[in-house]
Amino acid sequence: MSEQVILRAFQKSDRPALENVVRETWKYDRFCSPKTAARMAKVYLNSCLTNQTFTRVAEIDGEAVGIIMGKDIQNHKCPFSLRMKWLNSIISLYLSKEGREISKIFECIQGIDKELLSACKKDYKGELAFFAISEKCRGKGLGRKLFESVVAYMRSQDISEFYLFTDTSCKYPFYEHPGLTRRCEKKQVIDVKGEIGDMTFFIYDYQIAAEEQRGAK
Fold first, then answer.
1. Beta-strand relationship, 5-8 and 126-133
2. Side-chain-facing half-sphere of 126: CA atoms under 13 Å
């Protein structure tokens, strides 16, 4: 029996499943307690939801197993309700000492992302704000379908170039297959509760050809 794959907009009911996707993708349970890992996943997903103007969820047999978010930078406005959910999840994370320590990772990475964007010296109009697929559903072509959906969205907004942040904790070589270009990178030593590790952070970008733009109109 073949699986039924549906691409649709994000729904509130997707939160628990997608928080689990975030949690397994970044392997939060390796360096903190289950409760803190769950809170971190909630903060990350809520942060991404405040930073988007487009969402597509991959659903298989009724379960949300992946998501992509795009952002039209010039037209982005974060609804108050989403911002409040994000702030409340941060407060929940900060309630524990472990949560406060782990939150420093987010702050460090945000600083690195700003450095990379500044180093590129490009005026991007669009951003691929978030992209993740459940490990159990990789290799089914969902990544390609989701990526094509965000490209189609950027075309519809007359955005000819967009960027994304990624790093060596992710399957970053994936982005080179659909034609993205690595623009900037930065190596950084990350200290997670005394566990030292080397990571490299990247900016990739994607240029939509003029003929593709014309074809979309």
1. unpaired
2. 23
Closest CA to 52 of 164, 213, 167: 164
Spatial CA neighbour of 124 closest among 167, 86, 181: 181
pLDDT at residue 192, as a whole number: 66
Q: What is the mean pLDDT of residues 206-216?
A: 65
pLDDT at 194 over 70: no
pTM confidence score: 0.89
**Residue 154 token pair:** 């950027």
Q: Which two tokens stand for residue 23?
A: 């949690």
CA distance 192 to 65: 28
Residues 75/26, Cβ–Cβ less than 8 Å: no
- Give me the pLDDT at residue 211, please: 46
Q: Which of 2, 42, 15, 24 is nearest to 171 (CA)?
A: 24
Q: Report which DSSP code applies to 159.
A: -
Across the chain, which distance is largest between two alpha carbons, in Å? 54
Q: State the average pLDDT over residues 106-116.
A: 88
